[in-house]
Structures are given as structure tokens and as C-alpha cells.
Give the backbone structure.
Amino acid sequence: METATHQSDEELLIQGLKSGNEADFRKAVRVYTPGMMAVARYYLDNSTAEEAVQDCWVTVIDAIQNFEGRSGLKTWLHRIVANRSKNHLRKAKREVSADFSETLDPELANRFRPNGRWATPPSLRFDEDAESLMENGALSDCLDQHLATLPETQRSALMLYEAHQHKSNDVCNILDVSASNLRVLLHRARQKIFIMVEKFQETGEC
């Protein structure tokens, strides 16, 4: 009795890329470019990040033949764009202080202890008014606005870890930061998002 071999969508996409299938290449560009841009923006301004990502896709056309599947395709692509961005930048890697209270906004500084734990926990609640606001997009729009104002380091860490669901060690490798630095970046970003949501629920204003 023959046993069927199940191939994931990613495995099929990789095969298509290796065989030079244009449709699969366009699909990969569509699916993975947003995450690659998030990585590039950690190091570069927006316009330079776009150039770096475009250059990376040119590299991928040849490099995909050497892809051995030791990591996921997404992680592999993000490592390429991180390395290309670092080479483009040509400066020492940035490190983040492990002091959780450093550079916090005044509104946030009195809400957290120096070790990063809540001094005053957020009173997040989702009553009928909040739910209706979410349904009409007001809260979602406000969230997008606040994400856009986060420092690039925090936004990239948050998007890679939360939105793109990379494991913490993969995010560290992609952004070239230590585990403790990643915790600080995520901590600071989450603080600001929590405060935004809490304020929005209290006042209805962004």
C-alpha cells in the first residue's frame, strides 16, 4: 500500500521558486515583502528600505537554489534582507539599554517599575461602546496611527514577533539584537499600545 506524501504550501512554493515559476515568484513577493520591509526599516529609512528589499528579491532568484530548508522560508528571507540592510548601513549595530524605565514617555514612566512590571495595571475593558467602535474601524485606525509613530526598532520587533509570529530567537537573529534587548523592545512597544487602548476606551479619542 502506497503512502501519500503531503507537501505544505510553503514546500510547493519553494519548488516553484527553484524551478523559476514566475507565478510562484510573484506570489512570494506579495506574501513576504511586508515582513521584509519591517526588517529593513529597523536599519534604514523607508525609501532606502524599499530599495534594499527590491535588491534582496533579485538576490533570491539565484540564492533560492541553495536554500536547504533548515529554517522556514520567511525566516530565511528576513535574514537575507537584514544582512543586506546592515551592509547598506555600514555602521555598528544598535543596542538597547536594559533599563526598562529609560526613555519612556512621562505618561508611561509612572505606570511601570524599573524592572518592567506594572505599577498601575491597565484597566482594559471591552463594553458595548468599545465593541461598536472596533466594528466601525475607529479603534483599528487609531492602532495603525500609533504603530506608525513607534520608534522603528520597537515597531519592527513588535511586528515580527506578534504580526508575523516569528519565534523570539528568530527575531533576535533577524534584527541582530540580544534576547534581553528584544524583551525591552517588545516591552516598550506593548506599554504604549496598552496605554493607547486604555485612553481610547476612556475617552473615545485617539
Remarks:
- The chain has two domains: 2-91, 106-203.
- The first helix runs from residue 9 to 18.
- The chain is about 65% helix and 0% strand.
- Confidence is low (pLDDT under 50) at residues 1-5, 91-95, 97-102, 124-128.
